[in-house]
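Why do we care about 3D structure at all? Because function follows from shape, and shape follows, mostly, from sequence. That is the central idea of this module. The next example makes it concrete: a single protein chain, its amino acid sequence, and then its structure expressed as tokens.
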Amino acid sequence: MISNQLITRLRAGYSHISKRMPSVSSTLSFALITFMTMPTIALAVEDSDAIKGSDPGWDIGKMTCKLVFNLCRSGTEFFIGFGGDLMKTLSLDSLLSGNFRTGAFSKFFLAAAGVNKYALAPIASVILAAAFVMTMLKISDDSQRLGSKFWKNGFLQTVIMYAVSWWVIRNSVDIAGGIYWVMQRANAFVKTALSSAGVSVSSGLDLGAKLSETYMTAYDAITYGAVGQCVIYFLASLVFVAVCVSCFCYIISVALLRMADIYLRVAFAPIPSAFVVNDRSRAITWTYLKRFAAVCFQASVLLITIALAPLFFDVVGSAINLSAVSASSLGAAVASIIAPCIALGAITSFVKKSEPIANSLFGL
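And the structure:
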């Protein structure tokens, strides 16, 4: 009887509290449910447990470790994947192997051909005409001293040379296109030779599908006691993507500058072509032709460098013995992305050397 009365009074009191203070009632209910469902202390994780896939429970320290782990993992996975995918898209074939007139730089060609034909070719023709008049006057003076036979021979040679020079000025765009075509064929022969020798010719820089997998597998093995390694993994991935972006931008920029240089030289081709008639000034024309051929060859060097990219990665990979340490260790993970960074640095340096290599081959 007493217990029934007590229960009745408690219910009345709870109803009174619920009506007067609904927020207190909700808080008490939530606390009771939480207490009934809270995991036991015996299931708490240890410092030696891997963070991934574990439940830190209500341990504030472990929950903080889990949060840092997940944040760093998201950033690390994004940077590693982004760097690898970016380098796969690097292909210079469309830039440097296209048709001289209708390729990726067709608008460059139209601009260069227009400047060549309507601006510089007339100027070169005037220079050539003035030089022709001066030469004829000199021949006329010499003929008075040396006789008519010399005048006829000198006149014939001068007319032929100036006719050739005028033809070169008018067809300088086609001559430049022919030199460019020869360099393209030379590059194609080099690629064919490499393929026949068993060298895999690549059109992009594939860093390997296992790079991201290896790195993230090592990251997922981080324990609560070594949660500080998350920051190291994240910073290493940040350095990796910075190297990839830098190399990508540099190589593309060099390729664009080489092609712009080619078409700029095409636009100004009539000027050096006007000096081919004179023995003393003919060196200007030959220097121009060699310089133009060297710039075209630099484009071929860039294509060959990208084609040989897999060899760089293989050589650097063989120099770093990752099997000597545990695959899940921090050192092995960092070394797995340092290797492609070194290879990318070597490729970029080789691209930078394309200009002195081409100049030395043409005696410049």
